[in-house]
Amino acid sequence: MRLRNRFLLVGLGVLLFVLLTPALILFAGGFKFDFSTFKIIKTGSLVVRSEPSRAEIFIDSEKKRSTPAVIRFLTPNDYTITISKNNYQSWTKRLAIRSQLVTWANLNRDFITLFMATPILQKKSPAQTSNQEDQDITAWQIIENRLVRVNPNDQGQQVVIDNLPSHETSKIILGGNYLFLLLDSTLYKLNDGLEQIYQPVVDANWDKPSDKLVLFNNNEILLYDPISSSSPDLVLRSISPISAAKLNWFTGYVFFQNEGKIKAIELDGRDHRNTYTIVDAMDDFELDEKGKILQVFDQKEVKEYQIR
What we know:
8% helix; mainly beta; 2 domains; elongated; Immunoglobulin-like; 4-stranded antiparallel β-sheet
C-alpha cells in the first residue's frame, strides 16, 4: 500500500473517531436524535416485570419485548403500556416517561400480577368451622358502654374507656400496636381517647403484611395506614353493593365481592386501577398469603381455585 493511501486511511479513521465518539457518548448517556424535530433529546426508560414472566409488552399497541425487560431510549411522553400473556387477563395503564428518569410499571413492588383468565378449580369440600382464637395475654372486651382489658392470669379488669358512644353492635379489631372499634357503622381508633376514622363502615379487617386496615361499606373500599395517614384512602367507589373486601399485599390487589362475583382491584392508582373478575362469589372467601389460592365458601361447601 502506498504511503499516501496509508495516510488517507489513518485520516479517515481519525475523522470517524471524532464524529462518532460524541454520538456514542450521548447515546450511552441516554440521548438520541429526534428526526421529527431535528433535535437531540434526553430519553427515559421503562422497567416491566410480571408474574408470570415471559408476558408480551406493548407500548401504544406496538409489541416491544417480553417480561422482565428494561426498555431504554424512549422519547419523553405518555404511553399506553399493555402486558399480555395467553390464558391470562391483560394489564394496561397509561404511564409517563420522563427525561433521564426510570418509570417502573410495577410501582412499589417486585412485579405486576397477572390473573388467569379461567381459574383452575382445585377441589371442592364440605365447609368446616374453625374455633381458633387469638391467644394474646390480654383480651379486650366491650361490656355495656365500657372498653375493658382483661388479664387472664389474674382475671383482673382494667377499664380503658368508660363512656363509649351509644351503640347496638360492636367489633374490636387488633392491628399491630393499634386497636380499632367498630361501633354500629362508625370506625374509631384508640388513641388517648377515641379518634373517629370513618363513617359509614360495614366491616373492617387488619392486614398484617402491609400493616394497614381495609374497610368497606356498601359502595366504597378504603385503605387506612395508621402511621402515615390521618384519613383512609379511597380504593373503589361502586354503584352496586359490596359485601366483602380483603387486601392481599403480595399481589397488590384488594379482593372484594360485588354483583355475585369475586373481583380484584389493584392498589396502583396511576391513570386507572385495573379491575378483574375472578370467580363466582358465595358467602365469603379467603386467600393464601401470596394470592395464588382462593377459597370461596358458604355454610355447605368450600371451593378452592388457583387464580394465578
